[in-house]
Specification:
Blueprint: E1 4-6, H1 10-32, H2 39-60, E2 63-66, E3 70-75, E4 78-83, E5 87-91, E6 100-103, E7 108-110, H3 120-136
Antiparallel strand pairs: 1-2, 2-3, 3-4, 5-6, 6-7
Helix pairs in contact: 1-2
Length: 142
C-alpha cells in the first residue's frame, strides 16, 4: 500500500488566506502609524500578526494519513497514531462537521482532516477511509 493522505480543502484555504490578510494588514498598519509609535511598537504589531497566522496554521494543518502500519490523525496540535488492529470503523452523522473514528477500546476520535464542508470530496474521502478500515482494521475480524 502506498501512503494516502486526506486533507480538508476549504478548512485549509480560508485560514491561510486569512493569515496572509492579517500579516499584511499588520505590516501596513505598522508602516502608516503616526510618529508617537516607536519601532518597538511597530515590530509588536507585526509580531501579533505573525502569532495570529501561527494559530491559523495550527487550525489548517489537520489531516489523516494511512500507511502500512496504520492511521495517523492530526487535529490541530494533537497527533494520534493508531495501528490498523485498533480501528473498528468511521462514521459521519448527518450535519456533523467531520467524521468520528471508532476504536477497539470503545473510545472515539474526531477526524478533522475530512470536513463535511468539502461536500462530495469529503464523501469520497470518507468512503476510501472506511474501505481501508474495513479491509485492514479490527472490523475485518467481525
Amino acid at each position: 500500500m502506498t501512503t494516502a493522505t486526506w486533507r480538508p480543502r476549504r478548512a485549509r484555504i480560508v485560514p491561510y488566506v486569512l493569515a496572509a490578510v492579517v500579516v499584511l494588514s499588520m505590516i501596513v498598519l505598522a508602516v502608516v502609524m503616526p510618529a508617537p509609535w516607536s519601532l518597538g511598537d511597530r515590530i509588536g504589531l507585526v509580531a501579533i500578526g505573525l502569532v495570529v497566522a501561527g494559530v491559523l496554521h495550527i487550525l489548517a494543518r489537520s489531516r489523516v494519513t494511512a500507511d502500512d502500519e496504520g492511521l495517523t490523525v492530526v487535529n490541530g496540535l494533537l497527533t494520534h497514531e493508531y495501528e490498523w488492529a485498533e480501528l473498528l470503523g468511521i462514521t459521519m452523522s448527518e450535519g456533523a462537521p467531520w467524521p468520528t473514528l471508532d476504536l477497539a477500546d470503545g473510545s472515539t476520535v474526531a477526524i478533522m482532516g475530512i470536513q463535511a464542508s468539502d461536500g462530495e470530496r469529503a464523501n469520497r474521502a470518507l468512503a476510501e477511509l472506511a474501505a481501508l478500515i474495513h479491509e485492514r482494521g479490527e472490523a475485518k475480524n467481525h
